[in-house]
Design brief:
Shape of chain A: elongated
Number of helices of chain A: 3
Strand content of chain A: under 5%
Radius of gyration of chain A: 17 Å
Low-confidence stretches of chain C: 178-183
Helix content of chain C: over 70%
Mean pLDDT of chain A: 87
Number of strands of chain A: 0
Chains: A mainly alpha (about 100), B mainly alpha (about 625), C mainly alpha (about 180)
Low-confidence stretches of chain A: none
Largest interface: A-C, 75 and 94 residues
Distance between the termini of chain C: 49 Å
Mean pLDDT of chain C: 82
Order of helices and strands of chain A: HHH
Order of helices and strands of chain C: HHHHHHH
Number of strands of chain C: 0
Shape of chain C: globular
Oligomer: heterotrimer
Radius of gyration of chain C: 21 Å
Distance between the termini of chain A: 54 Å
Helix content of chain A: over 70%
Number of helices of chain C: 7
Strand content of chain C: under 5%
């Protein structure tokens, strides 16, 4: 294979996953949280594609496409919730959305 | 004969069980009749056994009948056994006979009581327990009867359980008896360890002097508690809270004499431990004196008679302590007659004056209750020991036995004679204060004559019978001339002392003289009131406080125990036990609160938890692999 | 089919550019306080990822990434961000302080572990990749796989999409009862 060997790609994928995790845990705006979630998913996708190329096996790419489809669906539902929340004039702050407090 | 013995034992138990189970289906009077009938059946059986025993030779007069063996361990065997021998038959006759008369009397005395059935069930239970005690074929059964008698006493003293004083008296009696039971049990343990059995035969075995002394001491402790001798005597006056027939039966005729019976039954051990036997005699003498002195200042009619009981049992202890077993038992028998008589006559007086017991309010009942007066007088004279009444024959033999003992014996003799004087004094003080002179104001207001119906009959007949027995009962043994009682009991307990006729004569003469002197002094002070009653303030106070025994025990035992209980409650119970159970709930709730803080409701917390968990798991997987 | 015809150097240069763009935009998404800028950064992220996919011979996936992800999903995001109140919040404030530290630690741990796990397990085998055929990653290749080996995944994914669509419609619908403000969401 030309160019960097797959460990470099995997490093990028891991870094993306970590950054996405940080964003999910630390940001307050649910929209940003969803965006960070997308980054995590993309990091996983990159890892999948990398290994698919490494092992000359198309299953990784199939999996990546399925992940993409599911990510899209999840975004639909998540954004629907955000819109509904906004309509109810609920402040869009994950720290304030704690009515399931025990 | 064996059947007779078992019938004698079990008949009152059957009555008690039937009365208990029948409950409300049995009328109150019916319960009384049933109990009385069972006691008379018991007496009849005892007479049958006695007659059949008479027909045998002296050596064949001991029969042990075992119903079943229930404790076996190695070579140790004990079970429910009944012993038929002269001593037990004598006690059976006294207990069932006097018991039957007193239960008959109770029908009249307790007539109209709300809980009459309970009373008769308890009385039947008591008679059964006492018979178990005297008929017991081994020490274990004796102890069982011993304990049950204490229980019945507790139940009957506290019969009127709405009265706090009655409850307190019942508890006091039970606790003090329990002390005796404990020493008795300890003696028993030692015997079992040394002899491997509880049959009466082991008592004659050879023991080291330490063992014999300890066993005898334990047995003496039990006897002293049960018979209300010094130092465990304080419960008997308080026990007068119970109904008068109870006082008559339990605290005069039978239960308190169980101690004397015990010493006679186990005399073999006491003969191996002469110091303890001397201690028994000494305690008896001391009690005799103390009780006689205290009786001089008592104002409750029943308490005077109670102290008199204590004093007479002191005589019995002197007798058995010296080894004159037959004389002790003989005095026990005559004492049962005249003491029960005195109590029952006192009961008639109390009933006639609507439950008043303070003798200072009484007076002049001689004309209003003539027959009762005669009965009481017979009992009083028998108590003092004037011939030809019962007490003379039995008490004076005891004094003579004391003379045969040596220096210690002479001390006992002098004390006994002093006791005779005191007996005359306090008995006739009581008689004169209650019956002599003109009717007092109180009597005029409150007197109502006893009825002449069945109720009155049930009270009158036993009194009459006992009055007759108090006269002729002593004729059973006149020491210098003929002693069938001693011969009868010889196979069981050979007397250790045999006074000469001269000693008998001197003792009798002096005793009678002193008794008459006491009567005269009482006459002078209380009947014709020639002199005023002397008042020595210090002596009066000491006697009224009964030599401060109650206060002493209160300070020695009661207060420290209460203090300890309170300290333990504050120090252990509250902080440790109560707190732990409440803090268990509180701490669980607090822990739950801490855990609940994990449920912040924030999404980020949960995601953080998942992420951290995944991180940790990854480490674990790497490490394991 | 983009082939590195001038050798490794070109591939490396493209890779470096794409990787840095990817990482930078990723950090930017998480950092910006304005969600609009974050969404735009994410579009950039997705684009650079598509380039990386191309370098890995996954042409169909790269095209799907640009069309579906960057094209449809991100547009949806932008619509909603524009619809919702854009409130400038301080991005790093809020929540218990220990959670922030914990988050950083967890993320760092995960990253380190991923590297360690892969490093330990794969070791030398990661150095040499297999050679792939010419049609690897082509639409026909993907299509054949979807319709033969992974038909079930294909069908189920379509059902998931259908359900999500229905869910989106329900969430977005104006029912009179929810307008009255009685029921919570």
């Amino acid at each position: 294979m030309n160019g960097p060997n797959i460990t470099w790609y995997l490093g990028v994928a891991g870094f993306l996953f970590g950054v996405g995790a940080l964003g999910v845990l630390l940001r307050r705006n649910p929209l940003i949280v969803l965006l960070s979630l997308e980054i995590m998913l993309n990091g996983a996708n990159l890892a999948l594609i990398t290994f698919s190329r490494h092992l000359d096996n198309g299953d990784g790419q199939i999996f990546a496409l399925a992940v993409m489809a599911v990510a899209a669906s999840e975004v639909v539902v998540g954004l629907g919730m955000v819109v509904a929340l906004n309509r109810k004039r609920v402040p869009l702050d994950v720290d304030r959305l704690s009515s399931l407090r025990g | 004969m064996v059947y007779g013995s078992w019938i004698c034992l079990l008949s009152p138990l059957a009555a008690a069980v039937v009365i208990t189970l029948a409950g409300g289906r049995l009328t109150r009077r019916g319960a009384g009749y049933l109990a009385t009938l069972s006691c008379f059946v018991s007496f009849g059986a005892a007479v049958a056994v006695f007659v059949s025993l008479l027909g045998r030779d002296a050596e064949q007069r001991s029969v042990l009948s075992t119903a079943w063996i229930w404790i076996t361990g190695g070579t140790y065997r004990s079970g429910l056994a009944v012993l038929i021998d002269p001593l037990s038959v004598m006690m059976m006759l006294v207990v069932s006979g006097v018991g039957a008369l007193i239960v008959l009397y109770s029908i009249g005395y307790m007539d109209g009581e709300r809980e009459e059935r309970r009373y008769f069930a308890y009385m039947a239970l008591f008679v059964f327990s006492m018979l178990l005690l005297v008929q017991g074929g081994n020490l274990l059964i004796l102890l069982a009867g011993w304990g049950m008698v204490g229980l019945s006493s507790y139940l009957l003293i506290g019969f009127w359980h709405e009265r706090p004083s009655a409850i307190a008296a019942a508890k006091k009696a039970f606790v003090m008896n329990a002390i005796g039971d404990a020493t008795f049990a300890l003696a028993l343990f030692l015997l079992i360890q040394k002899a491997g059995s509880v049959d009466f035969g082991i008592l004659g075995g050879e023991y080291t002097s330490t063992v014999a002394n300890l066993v005898a001491l334990g047995l003496l402790g039990g006897a002293v508690a049960k018979s209300a001798q010094l130092p465990l005597q304080t419960w008997l006056p308080d026990a007068m809270e119970g109904p008068t027939p109870v006082s008559a039966l339990i605290h005069a005729a039978t239960m308190v004499t169980a101690g004397v019976y015990l010493i006679v039954r186990t005399h073999a051990i006491f003969e191996q431990a002469p110091k303890v036997a001397d201690l028994a005699a000494g305690l008896g003498a001391a009690t005799l004196l103390v009780a006689g002195l205290v009786a001089l200042v008592q104002v409750d009619i029943k308490r005077v008679i109670a102290y008199s009981t204590m004093s007479q049992i002191g005589y019995m202890f002197v007798a058995v302590g010296l080894g004159a077993y037959a004389n002790g038992m003989f005095h026990l028998m005559t004492h049962a007659f005249f003491k029960a008589l005195l109590f029952m006559a006192a009961g008639i007086v109390i009933h006639a004056l609507t439950d008043e017991q303070d003798i200072r309010k009484m007076g002049g009942l001689r004309r209003l209750l003539p027959r009762t007066f005669i009965a009481f007088a017979i009992g009083a004279v028998a108590l003092v020991g004037l011939p030809p009444f019962a007490g003379f024959f039995s008490k004076d033999s005891i004094l003579a036995d004391a003379m045969d003992r040596g220096a210690f014996g002479y001390v006992l003799w002098v004390v006994g004679l002093a006791g005779t004087f005191l007996t005359g004094l306090y008995t006739f003080r009581l008689l004169f204060l209650v019956f002599w002179g003109e009717p007092s104001a109180f009597v005029r207001e409150h007197f109502h004559a006893p009825k002449r119906d069945l109720v009155g009959w049930t009270m009158g007949v036993p009194v009459a019978v006992l009055a007759v027995l108090s006269v002729i009962g002593g004729w059973l043994q006149f020491a210098p001339l003929w002693h069938p009682v001693e011969t009868w009991l010889q196979s069981v307990a050979e007397p250790v002392v045999t006074p000469t006729d001269w000693q008998e004569g001197i003792s009798s003469a002096l005793a009678v003289l002193l008794g008459l002197l006491g009567i005269y002094v009482a006459w002078a002070l209380y009947a014709v009131k020639t002199f005023a009653v002397p008042r020595f303030a210090f002596a009066q106070r000491v006697l009224e406080h009964k030599f401060y025994f109650d206060e002493l025990y209160d300070a020695l035992f009661y207060r420290p125990t209460v203090w300890l209980a309170k300290a333990l409650y504050r120090g252990v119970e509250d902080p440790l036990i109560a707190e732990s159970s409440t803090s268990l709930g509180q701490d669980t709730r607090d822990l739950g609160g801490i855990v609940a803080r994990l449920q912040t409701g924030l999404l980020r917390t949960y995601v953080l938890a998942i992420a951290s968990g995944a991180a940790v798991l990854a480490i674990v997987f790497i490490a394991v692999k | 089919m983009i082939v590195a015809s001038v050798g490794n150097v070109l591939v490396w240069a493209v890779w470096i550019l794409a990787a840095f763009a990817c990482l930078g935009s990723g950090v930017a998404v998480v950092s910006f306080s304005n969600p609009f800028y974050s969404a735009l950064a994410l579009i950039g992220n997705l684009g650079s990822l598509a380039v990386l996919y191309l370098l890995l011979s996954a042409e169909f996936v790269a095209a799907a990434q640009v069309l579906v992800y960057a094209g449809a999903v991100m547009v949806m995001f932008l619509f909603v961000i524009a619809y919702v109140d854009p409130r400038l919040e301080s991005p790093w404030a809020g929540g218990p302080g220990w959670q922030a530290i914990g988050a950083v630690l967890a993320a760092a741990a995960l990253l380190v572990e991923i590297i360690v796990v892969i490093g330990l397990n794969a070791g030398g085998s990661l150095a040499h990749s297999h050679d792939v055929g010419g049609s690897f990653g082509s639409p026909s290749y993907i299509g054949r796989l979807f319709l033969t080996d992974h038909l079930l995944a294909f069908e189920i994914t379509s059902i998931v999409l259908l359900v999500a669509a229905i869910g989106g419609v329900i969430l977005g619908s104006h029912s009179r009862r929810s307008e009255a403000g009685v029921e919570p969401l």
